[in-house]
Amino acid sequence: MKVKYAAQILSNTVAAVLKLLSEADLNPQHKHELMETALVIQDLYKLFDYTNGPSGPQDIKKGIRQNVSAKTDHLNVWADFRKKMEKLVFVKSNGMAATNVRCVKGYLITLSSLQDLWNKLSRLGFKYLNLRQLNQDALENLFGIIRQHSPTNKNPTCASFIGAIKTALISGLTAPHNRGSNCEEDCKKLLTNFHELVFENESMPKKDDDHDDHSAREEKEMEICEDSQLSAPVLSLPEVLDFEDIEKDLTDVDSQPLVYLSGYIASIIIKQYNCLRCKNNLTAEEPESCPLFRYIKLREWWNAKSCLTYPSLNLCRTIEIAITVFNTEIIGCLHQKNICQLAVTLFFIKCDISWFSCEMHSKLVFDVMFVRLSRLLVRRQCQRVNLSLSEKEENLASAVKNAQQRGISK
Predict the structure, then answer these.
(1) How far is CA 94 from CA 37, 91, 240, in A?
(2) Mean pLDDT of all residues in 155-179
(3) Angle (CA) 312 317 322, round 5°
(4) How many CB atoms lie within 10 A of CB 106?
(5) What are the extents of the domains in the chain?
(6) What are phi and psi of 68, to 5 degrees?
(7) CB count, 10 Å around CB of 155?
(8) Helix (H) or strand (E) run with residue 127 in it
(9) Measured between alpha carbons, how far is 148 from 153 in angstroms, rounded to an integer?
(10) By three-state DSSP, how is residue 402 classified?
(11) Closest-CA residue to 295 (of 266, 267, 324, 255)
């Protein structure tokens, strides 16, 4: 059951993009339809959050995604969504209304069941209910691990499925979680593992050692990056910059993801270095009246307060130049070793960082910024290449399988 594309479409991100397109007047004849579609997707995303609990403390969104308790408004929201879904009408291609829509009936049953379950648990004295424990994420992730043993076999036989699940259980379900899978990582573990059953007297290796080795590798990589950056010359931009033209370019709809990425990187740096001067350099002074942040404003959960980070124009310009450098000079040699180190070095050479006025944290800030950006860009490009290769491999496997069924090839 592959629902990851539906989950990606019915998200707050897509709703914000549709609102942005509606306000940009690029499609005036479809402006009303874009806004209505965005509002529907936003309501569905809210419904998903109110019927699914947080995966951990870091995943809690107050007032949106949290455990059910007497202080939350889950019961009221569930009742409101029940009224809305009872009035939903699906129109067929011939203009007639559909009479038997199973997804709506199923969700109505789910909302009624959650309400009855919480009423029962609250009467028994329970104070919280984590809805995350009621979904099928663990089962979906198990099937995802099984599919990783034979990614090109879309229709496995019973024998191949049994072999794959045996391999997954023996390895302790240690396959990496796919970021593009149907659901989020559930962080569940087996009660025992193959090593403990076979070698009962031998002690398992400590996980702290692996964590220390991973941290040591990261520190070594950072030291290499720092050493390579000390002797790198910096080519500054022209002294007279037409900031109005730069801001106009970034205001364009196609550049809004770049602005959002800049805000994400700025938020990471601000949390790591609690410095007022760094914050003033990385964030905008008056984002409310600036059209540059239309997409970020649409991504806000609450209208009354701002929770996202609005990057400064200088930061957006620096990230834009770094992405351009990556697309023109790094993608062609992505197969080489130490590619992130090469990307960081080129970022320091090509980008102007003289606008950053905090001398105490200047080098540390741009180290973190360029290392994080290089990893994001390299990972994203690898995902694109892997997706293309995977599609070719699946198409080839399907063609061979069809040919074998017709008796054309062995």
Answers:
(1) 21, 8, 62
(2) 72
(3) 125
(4) 10
(5) 4-134, 137-198, 211-391
(6) -70, 135
(7) 7
(8) none
(9) 10
(10) helix
(11) 255
Q: With 70 as the cut, is the pLDDT of residue 402 above it?
A: yes
Confidence bin at 292 (pLDDT 50/70/90): confident
The answer, yes or no, to whether residue 114 has pLDDT greater than 50, is: yes
Question: Can you tell me the distance from the alpha carbon of 137 to that of 187, in angstroms, rounded to the nearest whole number?
Answer: 10
Which of residues 56 and 91 earns the better pLDDT score?
A: 91
**pLDDT higher at 7 or 113:** 113
Whether residue 145 contacts residue 168, with contact meaning beta carbons closer than 8 Å, is answered with: yes
Residue found by looking up tokens 């491999």 in the block: 393
Give the long-range contacts of residues 120-129, CB within 8 A, separation 24 or more: 122/70, 127/69, 127/70, 128/67, 128/68, 128/69, 129/53, 129/67, 129/68, 129/69
Q: Quickly tell me which residue has 């072999």 as its tokens.
A: 163
Distance CA 8, CA 10 (A): 6
Q: What is the pTM of this model?
A: 0.57
Token digits of residue 111? 């909302």
Share of the chain above pLDDT 70, in %: 74
> Which 3 state secondary structure label does DSSP give 162?
helix
Q: Which has more confidence, 233 or 29? A: 29
Place of tokens 């007497």: 70
Nearest to 374 by CA among 229, 212, 179: 229
Report the phi/psi class of residue 309: left, alpha or beta, with left for phi > 0 and alpha for psi in -120 to 50. beta
CA 410 centroid distance within chain? 42
In the DSSP assignment, the letter for residue 130 is: -
Helix H or strand E segment including 350: helix 339-350
Average pLDDT, the chain: 76
With beta carbons less than 8 A apart as the criterion, state whether 390 and 151 touch. Answer: yes
What is the rounded distance in angstroms from the CA atom of residue 184 to the CA atom of residue 140? 9
Q: How far apart are CA 149 and CA 126, in angstroms?
A: 41
Q: What percent of the chain stands above pLDDT 90?
A: 6
Q: What six digits make up the tokens of 306?
A: 């701002």
- Burial grade of 317 (CB within 10 A; 0-12, 13-18, 19 or more): buried
